Amino acid sequence: TKRALIVADLTFGSYQEGPRQALRSAMRLVKDAGVGAVKLEGGERSHEQIRTLVEAGIPVMGHIGLTPQSVNAMGYRVQGRGEEAAAQLLRDA
Known about the structure:
Blueprint: E1 7-9, H1 19-33, E2 37-41, H2 47-55, E3 60-63, H3 71-74, H4 83-92
């Protein structure tokens, strides 16, 4: 609808190389698919990509904690259980 915010996921491999790749991928979604925002996993480790997208005027929704695209690498497990893991979640936010 005209009032819905459409958020598209930047899929695994579409932004990990760096900010330029993230911007190309996000711009394609905005231009070709008409999305209003993009979502990506990562938090602190993706801060350069996030900064680049925001500076380009693309709204970003972050996804921290259990990150489904990383399940194959890390598996499903409780996030933030230990003190350092909890601190990392706060840094990611």
